[in-house]
């Protein structure tokens, strides 16, 4: 039977398209090497027709299919389950940019296109594709769509969902739905694209997408300011958006505890402010018009905020080098925290205006349950996305703690608080295999049930990425 | 049985909530008085719980439910079918604004909230709700969502779909799904909101929505320019977006034939240009920053375009009054066309870059099939939305024509051409009861079949707005 399957797969994708020997670990394990899966075959189709044929063959033998892009999921969403007779379906060889359309502000890219390649293609016609994240040299279009990736451009441009005109998808029955016309307005019945965006490969295989391009930026300005509280940061954000609107490209809130850890652990990285603030915001403005005069307008605005006392202290970068220093502090957070202790980082989101109340409740609950923990905050405030971090510093006294169990306990504690504030425990990383239990525990039963019904409608045999989003056998 | 139903409904919504006598025509007929329906009852629930109870009662007796907002559909999507024993469920009394949140850029409004009321609410906190259309004094939030309304703000802010954080929906089985937290990032499984946006009431009843607010605008600039062709208008659009990005709020293409009709029929309305252009564009820029210097930057930009020959002639408005003159010409189109002859207006969309090819093909096909017709073009070019108008002037010689049959023939002819250019025959008006046949005729069968399967999954008894989107009994 396995031989039949392998022979059938080779007949579809060609002998070079089935990886049976050699090192398959990059297909079977997650990138941090935390989860190790098994597969009866790893296949690399070259076309939508080949994907459809693979899916039909898998369906005929009830073999699970695990769609895989760059395999950079934070939640183990693209690795097969150990013990399953799965096919890993890697889209890597489907990496053509089928169309690049400046006037239509559109690019049609196959699922295996690496994000950095997409950036270059957009730049080649004087435009930008504005989704940026750490793994952009590896992450692929299909995975970014299937996980509705966030990243640093989300405040201005939205997550991946907002950058998709339409999709080409192979359904679990092997038929192909195609919507690559890049229409800005289309009201012909139900919008099916959005079902597949963020579905993590459980409803079908995304094989290509028509994506939105935006104008490239030619002017910018950066500031590093301190404020008295998250509520004051929120007020500053509202006032900046009222004045600068879409020019506000990034607005990152840092707790003083986070800045202190960076400065303690990485002596070369300093805040530009004279004293350690309780709260700081790093701000980036950008505009396509080189005559936009952003720096002058930002200085004008912030001097008003300083006079009124809404901002306590602040520096506007006078050079690109100085702006880079501001952002170096922000981007050194992970490195510094790893040196300082062990931490559990949450991926919560609440409504933007609820961030202060959520931070207060989460911090209080954390120190009550874990008196030796330090609440550390790194927040994409403009998205309501809070990476709340429970830090256990190595140089601080406290009970012996098992990091894994502590991480689980912190997750449950803070996820419950996010929910109580109308929020989400998975803002931008998705569910994968990691948060299947939390999704079931924390979802409205009616919503969960309807999601399952949709899963059963599209994938009655349950062959698409089983064990992701829902427990195996759901 | 009908008495049982009426008694049951009165018990739910109170005696004042069932309209049985008096003039029910505004609930039963469309606003242009073209379609006349019947209903066993018109009910006006006051709460989500009452809506759920009405839906459960209707389901128990297999009575169709027609959700209705302001009843301003262009496609008869909110009127009951003549001869059906339907309940018209008017959301008009559910018109509370539950939350108005400046810092969260969010408003939670019930389905019966009139669009103009929403505008006022946003303005009261110094923000804007940017969807604008002719019927804004009547159209309601629930209908705008269910039809994914477009309007004049769509170029900059997208259609209604892009302005929704989340929905509260009563499903056909009477359960309530609620997602009113206004989260900007949330990756907890399938996004169900988008299924209901544009579903025209066939999958459930939208009872409330969390909607996005945007910064208010405090600077603007307007221009009226002529270009040699739609292709040159497209190039101008791309160059303007590269420089002004989201400040480009409107970019409307008019054919010379349209300008001539306006000037012939309405002598008080003139183009600001010295000669009648072949093609003209009316442009509006807007920015929240009063210091944005838009007029100077627009003059600087257009003088470069004039020097290069990409723009043939143009005027930048020196005053608000002059800007109003430019837009008066644009907004006089319907009135002038009604005086000039009979016309059939299409609601097509194609990819923005495909507009020139579509216009050329549509114009050629029209004059070949109807030599007495004049192709007239009014296009939201930035959306790829083309209101292509086949005009039959009263003062022009031609065969005797039946307007209704001619309209049908023109529709089929031009819809086919839109499809051949990868486009849609329903860009912003939806399907309703009017275009059910065209949806079936022109859809990919796999897509149509999946839409029907989703309809059957959510509404197995077929009680929700039957005859809309799909033929009765589908």
UniProtKB/TrEMBL annotation, chains A, B:
Domain of life: Bacteria
PROSITE patterns, per database record: FAD_PCMH
Annotated ranges, domain FAD-binding PCMH-type: 35-216
Ranges in coiled-coil conformation: none
Signal peptide interval: none
Keywords tagged on the record: FAD, Flavoprotein
Entries under Pfam families matching the protein: FAD-oxidase_C, FAD_binding_4
Cross-referenced InterPro entries: FAD-bd_oxidored_4_C, FAD-bd_PCMH, FAD-bd_PCMH-like_sf, FAD-bd_PCMH_sub1, FAD-bd_PCMH_sub2, FAD-linked_Oxase-like_C, FAD-oxidored/transferase_4, Oxid_FAD_bind_N
Gene3D superfamilies membership: 3.30.465.10, 3.30.70.2190, 3.30.70.2740, Uridine Diphospho-n-acetylenolpyruvylglucosamine Reductase, domain 2, Vanillyl-alcohol Oxidase, Chain A, domain 4
Keyword Flavoprotein: yes
A single MF term (Gene Ontology): FAD binding
Gene Ontology biological process: respiratory electron transport chain
Family stated for the protein in its record: Belongs to the FAD-binding oxidoreductase/transferase type 4 family.
Name listed for the protein in its UniProt record: FAD-binding oxidoreductase
Organism: Microbaculum marinum
